[in-house]
Amino acid sequence: MLAYLQNIVVLFSINAILALTLNFIMGYAGIFSLAHAVFFGIGAYTAAYVALNYTDSLVLCMLAAMGLSAVISMALALPALRVRGEYFVAASLGLQMIGVTIFSEWKSVTGGLGGMVGIPSPVFLGYTFRSTTDFLILAGVILIGILVITSLLVRGSFGRSLMAIRDSESAAQAYGKSVNTVKTLSVAISAGLAALGGVLYAFYMSFVNVEVFTLDMSILLMAMVIIGGTGTLIGPVVGAAIVMALPAALTYLPFIPPGELGTIQQIIYGSAMVILMMYRPGGVVGARAKGKST
Amino acid sequence: MTAAQNLTDPAKILLQVRGLHKNFGGLQAITDVNLDLPSGVITTLVGPNGAGKTTLFNMITGHLVPSSGTVHWLGESLNGIAPWRIARKGIARTFQDLRLFNHMTVQENIETVMERSSWLWQRRSVAMKQKIEQVLDETELASKRHERAVDLAYAERKFLSLARIMAGDATLWLLDEPASGLDPRSFDRFVALLKSYAQRGVTICIIEHNLDIVIRLSDTVAFLDQGKLLAQGSSEDILKDPHLAAIYFGDR
Amino acid sequence: MLYLQLLVNGIQTGALYALIAAGFSLIFGMTRIFHAAHGATFTIAGFVFYEFYAVLEWGLIPSVLACAAAAALFGVLLNRWVYVVIQRHEGSFFTVFAASFGAAIVVQNLISIFFGKGMVTVSTPLSRSIELMPGLYVAPMAFIAVITAIICFALLHYLFTHTSMGVALRALGENPVLVDVFGLNPKSLGKYAFLIGSVLVVPAAILTAATSGLNPAMGHHVMMISIAATIVGGVGSLRGAAMAGLLFGLAENLSLAFFDPQWSEAVTFVILFLFIIFRPGGFYGRAIVS
Fold first, then answer.
1. Contact (CB<8Å) B120/A173
2. Rounded distance, CA C47 to CA A291, Å?
3. B10 has a pLDDT exceeding 60
């Protein structure tokens, strides 16, 4: 039972990291991306590749994953600088599709459809992370770290620049904000930190495969952010918890045939999105409290 | 130095517009405009709708590129420079539709303008904090500092728009109909505020339709019609000119 | 000969894409609502046709009518019950998009409960290919697809130029604020936009059911083509969206001569991406303020 719970918490942490980093650009910069799963994937594949071929050092794998993810995120930043809203969503959708195709086809690096197996355990300062408890602690630390970093950024001058650009790009420019620099930085940070979720995933599962990095995952992440609420830092974490609790809760309902669990789950969170947007667009956590920036 | 003296002292002319033209396709929006904005002087741009006043502002702030002509600020040409860089040189503007950062609080609106660089993290110095308090006091927004901009009353939004400029330490203010719709008491506060900053050497240029406002505020008035600068002088000279009045009120 | 075959396939696919894209572009251009559930409309239309024609074995005409009614109802009701409610209080792009997306997810999964997740097809002799020339296989369905598309676009053109409703819709697309001033009601005009836009997918859905088949998840692909074609064609231009749809159909098929099938979707998106970066206005679109 304990192992089962620990497993859930690790997976929850990974999802929370992804939802948090997605909200960074969605809620604060107004950049709606359907490509977030791609950066999750880049992080995972990079860590796997480095660990299998070069070193099992946790730090080096994390740095490689974050760096590559941030660099590739420039492909997303470019359309973000040129267009907003609906146009950008379309571009991010395109990037997601191309990303999945590359993950599935580049056999020499990603293992193609079969994926990569036998990923070694990561080592940090001589300690090897092997058991579920090990990963629980690692995931917790990374999650908290990302919460702290995002919080500092959002509550500080960078967050204000982001929100100013989101609220009125022309005014932000008229008051000295270098819109291109801020947008590019925010996309890079979002992608770089999301890659950490991928690193965790790759090492925890010892196996990566394209199935988890598809459009369905990007949609799931977006649902987490929307349901939890984009106006706060804690919203996406709550959203991740809710969306993840669904399948577990559903298994307790006797009348649902097991094969249909996934379908029912999707119906529930699809309906939740519709209803929330109609009556409570701020999500479960709600809109920003007065006087607070997050 | 009084405003009148500033008008004729060439050393104090901070913004120079020379031979400015702008066409949009076949439409000639601005034709051969020459304008000097000296330090400490409040210049008002008047003219009928569509005369090109906002277009002129847009060319100074870099939001529009002139078809020909030059704009010099403190001796340096602004041609081809991005709007955000021009803003960092001390030129600030308001918009007719305000464009406040609606979902941010009053204090955040002011803070963000003061944070000039693109660094991820900027420390807030004591001087900054003092400035914020000063601006909030001068615009009487201190009690509303944690309200979201979208929740403010109309006059408060106008003052917040001004507060953003004040906080940025700009030396050239381009205000687009900043006082329209203000009640008399707010208007008096507004005039006093502008005059106090002009006395500190700030160059102010205002687009305004309301002639009472023009009379109360201006040191000098420039009349724009169909993209051309027809006349410039004291508010008395301009407003009493029957020819210009005819253009302004529509009987040509 | 391969190229010719791919070209013919591309035209067939392109004709269907043009219809779908035009439907989305009509709705988006006229109401500015990002109707991400347009793909769901297509899926509903397809499966309703399958149910009535292939399963319940009603005749062709009743099945087509039922399918059109289902598509139209879905579009109009979604607008009335969800989008309008959202627009009343806030209506930002994101809120509408998220709701639309949620609806699409619900539809996709409801359909998979009733019909399973696999592929279903409507079998008809019309989809059997004939060898027109050595190496060139064309089914009658291909001609039907192109002719149907042409007829639909001709009807649309007539609608927009010769009927008062059509002209009012165009006015709505140009300037929603002014429409009020002239005594027209933007809300009820919007209803017509959804009606027409949703019905446009019907021929495409039926033809797809008879050729490559239907599955509940196909809404995604339909949606992507719709969005891509609307952008590449230029927002506000039905002609542009239709042409872009044709372009994508051609590109998807012709790319098979050079790449594996898995890459054909990527080809579509590379095209979209390039347009967004270098020419966001698309072929015919209005200028965009970024």
1. no
2. 51
3. no
